[in-house]
């Protein structure tokens, strides 16, 4: 049983999916199709999806491989929309609520008119943002929050931490949120960027120093007067940055990364400075069904308050319309260039 509006009589919905894993230039890499309307489980919300954003995880999951799906697979792990129905065990939400979330990588994604999502992973959307602006935030906010406040040990309630944080890849989706949350906590933020546009973007978000990632980082840090950083958040290749990461750290520093290494890492480089390195994956809680999954919904609702108070902003940079396979293929192609700033959002289902 579930609670929903009396007029919920639709039996099918639009969706975008794949059945083969193809290059994004292939017209069948993502396609439009109709699929049955999902029925919520006890802990689920059914959300009418208004806007989605595209992340590198979408392109990695879709990347070419020798696999064929027997039924179309629906991707998408960032959405904003309106609650359409609630499972019997759900509390804190009701039909009509505006919500945003990243959901679970193990369930059908947000590239559909309606999506089922565990209510514990969902936050009330910022009231001051449009659906497109809100959809840009969940996955990157969760990743930035968990990496910064849970793994690096920064206090989210602090407004004057004072320590130095280096953000590698600060202009992308995750980096854009790390910079804002770090500034909110009072950290001194050193950010890497190279193009004029990306350097201006990270300064606008709150970076106090911008380093050129095409040049060695340590001399640039020394020139700024920072003799090593206490904290480091790497949003880019772990393999490419591993040696420089340990070089720029102060003794007893802490580092977090979000990209898996393609080869074994030499942990001996951490030894002399007693450095700590950890990884962050925003789907760990939902994938392993941890007892504290509600922490993600809670942090999203808290960030929504900060947005509504003017402390944080959406990282939306571009909106594509309508929400269809062609628009999503375009968004995937742009993400695969590795040169996007902030987030790309796709919104607005085509009219029948």
Quick synopsis:
This protein is of the alpha/beta class and 352 residues long.
Note the main attributes of this structure:
17 strands, 352 residues, 10 helices, 8-stranded mixed sheet, alpha/beta, Rossmann fold, Quinone Oxidoreductase, Chain A, domain 1
Topology diagram in text:
Layout (H helix, E strand, L loop, with lengths): L1 E2 L8 E10 L9 E6 L7 E11 L1 H7 L2 E9 L5 E9 L10 E4 L12 E5 L3 E3 L6 H5 L2 H14 L12 E5 L4 H12 L3 E5 L3 H10 L3 E3 L5 H7 L5 E6 L3 H11 E9 L18 E4 L4 H4 L6 H15 L7 E5 L4 H12 L6 E5 L5
Parallel strand pairs: 10-11, 10-13, 11-12, 13-14, 14-15, 16-17
Antiparallel strand pairs: 1-6, 2-3, 2-5, 4-6, 4-8, 4-17, 6-7, 7-9
Helix pairs in contact: 3-4, 3-9
Tell me what you see in this structure.
- It is a single chain.
- The mean pLDDT is 95.
- The strands form 3 sheets. Strands 1, 4, 6, 7, 8, 9, 16 and 17 form an 8-stranded mixed β-sheet that branches.
- This protein folds into 2 domains: 2-137 and 288-347, Quinone Oxidoreductase, Chain A, domain 1 (Alpha-Beta Complex), CATH 3.90.180.10; 141-279, NAD(P)-binding Rossmann-like Domain (Rossmann fold).
- 28% of the residues lie in helices and 29% in strands.
- The chain has helices at residues 56-62, 131-135, 138-151, 173-184, 196-205, 217-223, 238-248, 284-287, 294-308, 325-336, and strands at 2-3, 12-21, 31-36, 44-54, 65-73, 79-87, 98-101, 114-118, 122-124, 164-168, 188-192, 209-211, 229-234, 249-257, 276-279, 316-320, 343-347.
- The longest helix has 15 residues, at 294-308.
- Helix 3 packs across helix 4 and helix 3 crosses helix 9 (294-308).
- Strand 16 (316-320), helix 10 (325-336) and strand 17 (343-347) form a beta-alpha-beta unit.
- It has 352 residues and is α/β, with parallel strands linked by helices.
- The chain is globular and about 60 Å long.
- The protein is built from 10 helices and 17 strands.
């Amino acid at each position: 049983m579930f609670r929903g509006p009396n007029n919920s009589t639709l039996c099918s919905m639009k969706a975008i999916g794949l059945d083969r894993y193809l290059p994004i230039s292939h017209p069948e890499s993502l396609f439009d199709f109709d699929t049955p309307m999902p029925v919520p489980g006890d802990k689920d919300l059914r959300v009418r999806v208004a806007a989605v954003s595209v992340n590198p995880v979408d392109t990695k999951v879709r990347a070419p491989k020798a696999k064929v799906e027997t039924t179309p697979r629906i991707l998408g792990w960032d959405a904003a929309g309106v609650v359409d129905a609630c499972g019997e065990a759900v509390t804190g939400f009701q039909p009509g609520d505006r919500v945003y979330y990243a959901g679970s990588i193990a369930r059908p994604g947000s590239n559909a008119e309606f999506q089922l999502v565990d209510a514990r992973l969902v936050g009330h959307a910022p009231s001051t943002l449009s659906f497109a602006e809100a959809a840009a935030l969940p996955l990157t906010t969760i990743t930035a929050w968990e990496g910064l406040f849970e793994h690096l040990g920064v206090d989210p309630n602090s407004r004057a931490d004072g320590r130095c944080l280096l953000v590698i890849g600060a202009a992308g989706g995750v980096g854009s949120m790390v910079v804002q949350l770090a500034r909110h906590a009072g950290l001194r933020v050193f950010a890497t960027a190279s193009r004029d546009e990306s350097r201006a973007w990270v300064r606008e978000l709150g970076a106090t120093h911008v380093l050129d990632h095409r040049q060695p980082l340590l001399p640039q840090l020394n020139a700024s007067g920072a003799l090593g950083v206490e904290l480091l958040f790497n949003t880019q290749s772990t393999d490419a940055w591993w040696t420089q990461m340990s070089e720029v750290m102060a003794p007893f520093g802490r580092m977090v990364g979000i990209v898996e290494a393609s080869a074994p890492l030499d942990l001996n480089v951490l030894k002399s400075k007693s450095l700590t390195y950890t990884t962050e994956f925003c789907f760990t809680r939902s994938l392993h069904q941890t007892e504290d999954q509600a922490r993600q919904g809670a942090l999203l609702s808290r960030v929504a308050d900060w947005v509504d108070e003017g402390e944080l902003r959406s990282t939306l940079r571009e909106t594509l319309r309508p929400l269809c396979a062609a628009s999503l293929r375009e968004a995937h192609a742009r993400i695969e260039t590795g040169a996007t700033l902030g987030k790309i959002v796709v919104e607005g289902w085509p009219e029948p």
